[in-house]
Design goal:
The complex is a heterodimer of chains A (514) and B (255). With 514 residues, chain A is α+β, with helices and mostly antiparallel strands. Chain A folds into 2 domains: 134 residues, Beta Polymerase, domain 2 (2-Layer Sandwich), CATH 3.30.460.80; 313 residues, Cytochrome-c3 Hydrogenase, chain B (Orthogonal Bundle). Chain A is built from 17 helices and 16 strands. In chain A, the strands form 5 sheets. In chain A, strands 1, 3, 4, 5 and 6 form a 5-stranded mixed β-sheet that branches. Chain A has a 4-stranded antiparallel β-sheet with strand order 2-14-15-16. A 3-stranded antiparallel β-sheet of chain A has the order 9-10-11. In chain A, a hairpin with a 4-residue loop joins strand 5 and strand 6. The mean pLDDT of chain A is 94. Chain B has 255 residues and is an alpha/beta fold. Chain B has a 5-stranded parallel β-sheet with strand order 7-6-8-9-10, with helices on both faces. The longest helix of chain B is centred in the C-terminal third of the chain and has 11 residues. Chain B starts with a helix and ends in a 7-residue tail after the last helix. Classes of the chains: A alpha+beta (514), B alpha/beta (255). Chains A and B meet through helix 4, helix 5, helix 8 and helix 9 of A and helix 1, strand 6, helix 5 and helix 6 of B. The structure holds iron/sulfur cluster (SF4) (2 copies). One iron/sulfur cluster binds next to helix 5 and helix 7 of chain B.
Chain lengths: 514, 255
């Protein structure tokens, strides 16, 4: 009934005037969100922004309507000290609400577990936990959900882990070997990026995007570039779109291959572990062939790409891919043929489709439960409009499904890359694109862009002020949606399966902590 | 089992020969160690200083570029009309001292000095490192990690990453050192038995890089621990890290 007036429907990467977004009373705002989520929409982003009026904040909800391929956006004005929590009815909002509390010191009333997300001081002069400004904040310190009983014990892991990985703290409540509950405390990687983005863009901004999550350089940078291009009404060349798509799929290849290798490593199956460890590097080297950097740093710029590929380079790449494709396939198929591998992967860390929906999962983790969520298909931009990609899913929602979906997507991506390189062969290279200067960014506008990074949906929202500067630049890394999935997947599992469960999600710490 | 064996045979032997054999070739757009030319640099031009996202370039009193701050974006080279800055394909650019990371006059680059004799006696043939990410973006982590794979086989030089500081001879640090990781990092350092070394990998660890001005970070390792090896890059190519480690342990001596 009210979804017509309550939301404005907008398209991926298309800006609108800020004042076109319906401004609801808080109660109506909450009702509208509740109703829409009940109808199957999901939360792409939910955040606060300071308001010009003293004592007030703006709250924005960006829902994704997969079926109709559009966003539904709405806003409300709240008193800056509190707002109504929806976390108990819409679990996918719980972390967003905690984030708002931490950033603005504004309390989501009724939140069942109001803890900090990243352990930093508030951006305003209010603090949701009444901590003093001069008081140091200790990450990971505070209440944890506790189970009591004679046989229950607690296991704490991190922030520093055994391997070469990013820091995070995991607190398990166990009975014997069985995990009854896992609580994950992050924030150790917090570099203060979102706060630093307010008032930009400037010469630093694009570089921040390169390293929001350094294994997703292309995914995040692409999303940023599309936001800027949208805000400047710039169209990029068809060829640039193809190049960007190739880079995004190469990023997916390297990471999916690496993940399958790490999963094999965690169960001690060394052939796939060592082959994939090397092959992952070879896929990264293909990115280096295009850009000079294995992670694609500085490749995407507002306006296009900083380099193009010559015919010779394309031929070299195609030849390498031919070889690599076979090696990749051989290394991975070993997994599916080996009983002891399957015995470890199957039925470990199960999430049902319903849980996936409730938690608002994205990416591989969502598709492994059967949810058809893949932005390349549901909200395609750039080259994916012309070269559609099919969604690969599985049903069982376990470690096996998350691994298997990666295996399927590797095949899809290789095909895509070959086809896209073939397209490029048809035409001569572009002159290097120009970085479009950010002078003519539309003022008082709102834009949201999503892309399907290798981990899942990447969402960036930009809100500009009178001068076209960022009043807010809100980033949602797919990990932000999915960390709760790891915690839930561990319930009633053996603690010894934690490494493979965790690895099967392989979420970003810095992408979450920003 | 048969399939594993045939796959193993097909995959072949893939470890790179470095430091033996031919010098590895870098890709076309690779940004290696920069070379600055004072003669070509125009006095009244400030283009590179203005475009640099991390303040790595200064012209006081003459053009200098700080590898400890540089994220190797290449923008200064692009913007310089007189071609006074050029990023070469030289991947060897680690140093023993922070100040050696500043590239300025045309005098020779001061590469890593071999560790002192007592240390070399202990660590020259077996060096165990504890790696801690303190705000790293997972790219430096990946390129440190990759050295352990069969493509690089770090183990053949007696260098290994270990799971406990108690087993370690040194600490390898990645990231700008976020405020939220200072305590854990210090505890890790303290838990490593004496004598120990510290290696800083990546622009973030060297100076805070893009995050140097953010109050949420400590702007790198400098001033927190004494550093024995500085490895620049964002992220450094794995070969830059390997080259630095091999120079430190005396396995590469030439320039
Ligand atoms: S390459 Fe380095 S010195 Fe040059 S602009 Fe980029 S960060 Fe600055
Ligand atoms: S130096 Fe660059 S690659 Fe390394 S952690 Fe920092 S941002 Fe990431």
């Amino acid at each position: 009934m009210h979804s017509h007036q309550s939301f404005i429907n907008i398209k991926n990467g298309k800006p609108i005037d800020l004042n076109k977004i319906p401004l609801l009373e808080e109660k109506a705002f909450m009702e509208a969100i509740k109703q829409s989520i009940g109808e199957g929409k999901r939360v792409s982003s939910y955040f606060a922004c300071s308001s010009k009026e003293q004592g007030f904040l703006k709250l924005y909800a960006v829902l994704l309507d997969d079926e109709n391929q559009q966003f539904m956006v709405t806003q409300t004005k709240i008193n800056s000290d509190k707002f109504t929590s929806l976390a108990t009815v819409c679990p996918q909002l719980q972390l967003f609400e905690r984030e708002i509390a931490e950033q603005y010191g504004c309390i989501p009333v009724g939140h069942p577990w109001l803890k900090p997300v990243r352990y930093h001081h508030s951006w305003t002069d209010q603090d949701a936990w009444n901590r003093k400004e001069e008081e140091a904040i200790l990450p990971g310190v505070g209440d944890y959900f506790k189970i009591e009983g004679d046989q229950v014990h607690e296991v704490a892991v991190g922030p520093v882990h055994a391997g070469v990985i990013e820091p995070g703290h995991f607190r398990f409540q166990c009975q014997g070997e069985e995990v009854l509950h896992l609580e994950i405390a992050l924030g150790y990687q917090h570099r203060g990026i979102e706060k630093a983005l307010i008032g930009r863009p400037d010469k630093k901004t694009r570089h921040y995007m390169d390293v929001l999550a350094g294994d997703t350089t292309i995914g995040h940078c692409l999303t940023y570039c599309q936001n800027i291009e949208g805000l400047m009404s710039t169209e990029i060349s068809e060829r640039s779109k193809v190049l960007r798509g190739i880079a995004l799929e190469l990023e997916r290849m390297a990471n999916h291959v690496g993940d399958l290798g790490s999963l094999a490593n965690d169960i001690g199956y060394l052939p796939t572990a060592s082959f994939c460890g090397r092959i992952r590097g070879e896929w990264l080297n293909l990115t280096a062939l295009i850009t000079g950097n294995r992670f694609g740093r500085n490749f995407l710029i507002p306006g296009g790409t900083s380099y193009d590929l010559t015919k010779d380079q394309i031929v070299v790449m195609l030849n390498k891919i031919k070889l690599l494709e076979k090696e990749t396939e051989d290394a991975i198929s070993l997994l599916w043929d080996n009983q002891s591998v399957l015995a470890r992967f199957e039925e470990a860390g199960i999430l049902s489709r319903k849980q996936g929906e409730e938690l608002g999962l994205v990416g591989v983790a969502a598709r492994a439960t059967g949810l058809g969520r893949d932005i390349r298909t549901t909200m395609p931009s750039g080259v994916y409009k012309k070269m559609p990609i099919s969604i690969r899913t599985a049903e069982s929602g376990d470690v096996y499904a998350r691994a298997y979906v990666r295996g399927l997507e590797i095949k899809t991506s290789v095909e895509f890359i070959k086809k896209a390189l073939g397209e490029l062969l048809k035409n001569a290279p572009n002159k290097a694109s120009q970085i479009v200067s950010s002078d003519s960014i539309k003022a008082n506008s709102f834009i949201v862009t999503v892309n399907e990074g290798w981990r899942g949906e990447i969402c960036h929202v930009a809100i500009t002020d009178n001068e076209g500067k960022f009043e807010r630049y809100k980033i949602v890394d797919p990990s932000f949606h999915n960390w709760m999935g790891v915690a839930v997947a561990l319930r009633n599992e053996e603690i010894s399966d934690f490494p493979i469960c965790n690895k099967s999600f392989n979420l970003s710490y810095c992408g979450h902590d920003l | 089992m048969l399939k594993e064996i045939t796959t193993r045979m097909k995959q072949g032997y893939k470890t790179i020969k470095f430091p033996a054999g031919e010098r590895p070739k870098m890709t076309e757009h690779y940004c290696g160690r920069p070379i600055v030319n004072q003669v070509l640099c125009k006095k009244d031009c400030n283009a590179c200083v203005e475009i640099c996202p991390t303040g790595a370039i200064s012209k006081e009193p003459q053009l200098k570029l700080d590898l400890g701050k540089c994220v190797f974006c290449g923008e200064c080279e692009n913007v310089c009309e007189s071609k006074a800055i050029h990023f070469s394909d030289e991947f060897s650019m680690s140093t023993s001292r922070r100040e050696d990371l500043i590239v300025s006059t045309d005098e020779e680059f001061k590469t890593v000095a071999e560790m002192r004799t007592e240390l070399k006696k202990m660590f020259g043939r077996s060096l165990k490192l504890r790696v801690v990410s303190a705000g790293g973006c997972n790219a430096c982590e990946a390129d440190v990690n990759v050295l352990g794979t069969i493509g690089w086989d770090l183990g053949r030089f007696g260098i290994e990453y270990v799971a406990s500081p108690r087993h370690a001879d040194g600490l390898l640090i990645i990231g700008p050192v976020t405020k939220n990781m200072v305590l854990a990092l210090k505890k890790t350092y303290d838990a490593i038995p004496e004598d120990k070394i510290v290696i800083a990998v990546g622009t973030c660890a060297l100076s805070g890089g893009l995050f140097a001005l953010n109050p949420e970070t400590e702007a790198g390792v400098e001033g927190i621990f004494p550093v024995d090896l500085w490895v620049p890059g964002c992220p450094p190519n794995p070969i830059t890290i390997l080259d630095g480690l091999l120079r430190l342990t005396g396995k590469i001596k030439d320039l």
